[in-house]
Amino acid sequence: MDGTRNRRFRAGPLLPAVVVVCAGALLAGCSGSGSKDSPSPAPSSTSVTTGAAPTVSNQLQDDYEQVVKNVLPSVVQITTDSGLGSGIVYDTKGDIVTNAHVVGDSTTFKVTLATGKSTLDASLVGTYSADDLAVIRLKNPPAHLKPASFGDSSKVAVGQITLAMGNPLGLSSSVTEGIVSAVGRTVNEGGGGGGGGGGATISDMVQTSASINPGNSGGALVNLSSQVIGIPTLAATDPDLGNSAAPGIGFAIPVSTVTDIAGQLIQNGKVTSSNRAALGVTVRTVLGSDFQPTGVAVVAVTPGQAAAEAGLKPGDIITRLDGTDVTDTASLSTALASFKPGDRTTVTYERDGSTKTVNVTLSQLQG
Predict the structure, then answer these.
(1) 273 among known catalytic residues
(2) pLDDT of residue 271
(3) Is 217 a catalytic residue?
(4) Integer Cα distance of 256 and 151 in angstroms
């Protein structure tokens, strides 16, 4: 496991269209005036010479400023009937990639560019909820539209400095900074994402310490080469803190997934090759006598898919996949996320009071 099993994750919620902006939070006192470690004042007889501050390299600051200048014009604000989110300009034709949970059930949108000078109309191209991605298209893209530059997932490394750009809390063109904390995370959104993205299980996610707040979803996680390396999508929540956000733990969909899925949606209006493994079943969670989840019941089996070929039937209760316990629909999705179409594995299930194990060749998740 990747150490996240005791934490919950939520898709970045849409910001309500009407926002009450709170007063700025007070900063905690940090002068250290009462600290026993504070240095003693200099004797009155000591003269202090003031002069120019030591020369310090401003390269990192210059890099930050340049990245913001390069990328921010490619980050837009998306307004739907239910709230606000962010998006990234994908090409000069006006295609914009964002999260499926930002799009929700809407088919028409209002898009505000980073310049903020005008609001443009857009319509839905397609969504793919399994990876929480969607593409919308501007009806009349302006000539000055600036597509983002997309990076290489294989070059994303722990410790890299990252900037998250979007419209958190309705504050357009905001930027937060952090580092890549981990790569290759498999995270389940749970059911609270809203719209098209709730419940998606996404693999190979980039974990970042850059703050991801409501309204950041669909925006850009970028490196210091001004390349998008992911789409900020999830914020961790801690049950021990009343499910409030866990600071410094956010997740972004990797750029390789973003460009693959967006390209298919733009070309076909749907995903034709998901590269994700599936059993080809419709399932629901089963509760035991103690009202705790104990497995998933097969509701329907897709003809020609893995489960049907292996002999699974409606009414079977799946309890394990490749030796991993399956207690609910989320755990089944998480277990499948580590496989590719065509991989062989085993499924353990219960039928008529008997436990059986069968070999399966996994199918491709349909778009």
Answers:
(1) no
(2) 94
(3) yes
(4) 8
Structure tokens at 105: 């059930």
Number of continuous H segments (helices) and E segments (strands) in the chain: 5, 21
- For every residue of 213-263, DSSP letters joined together read -TT-TT-EEE-TTS-EEEEEEEEEEEGGGTTEEEEEEEEEEEHHHHHHHHH
Maximum pairwise Cα distance, the chain: 93
Q: List pLDDT tens digits, range 5-41.
A: 344 455 554 544 333 222 222 222 232 333 333 344 4
Q: For residues 213 and 211, what is the distance between their CA atoms, to the nearest angstrom?
A: 6
Give the helix ranges, DSSP H, for the chain.
Answer: 59-71, 100-103, 255-268, 306-310, 329-336
Q: Which of 160, 162, 150 is nearest to 67 (CA)?
A: 162
- Does 206 lie in the same domain as 290? no
* Among 73-77, 137-141, 285-289, the least confident range: 285-289
Active site residue 31: no
Mean pLDDT of 80-94: 93
pLDDT at 182 (0 to 100): 96
Q: Among 101, 173, 211, 331, which one carries the catalytic annotation?
A: 101
For residues 255 and 60, which has the higher predicted lDDT (pLDDT)? 255
* Burial of residue 1 (number of CB atoms within 10 Å: 0-12, 13-18, 19+): exposed
* Domain-terminating residue out of 115, 138, 161: 138
Could you say which of 114, 138, 162 is where a domain stops?
138
Instruction: Tell me which amino acid residue 60 is.
Output: L
Mean pLDDT of all residues in 292-321? 95
Say what the pLDDT of residue 115 is: 79
Q: Which residues of 116-148 are buried (b: 16+ CB within 10 A; e: fewer)?
A: eeeebebebbbbbbbbbbbbbbbeebeeebbbb
- Specify if 43 maps to a domain: no
Mean pLDDT over each residue of the chain, to the nearest integer: 83
Residue 49 lies in a domain: no
pLDDT at 53 over 60: no
Q: What is the mean pLDDT of residues 154-182?
A: 92
Q: Catalytic pick from 95, 106, 131, 132?
A: 132
Of 181, 203, 211, 217, the active-site residue reads 217
**Which of 23, 353, 5, 21 is closest to 215 using CA atoms?**
21
343: containing domain: 277-364
Residue 109 and residue 98 in contact, taking contact as beta carbons nearer than 8 Å: no
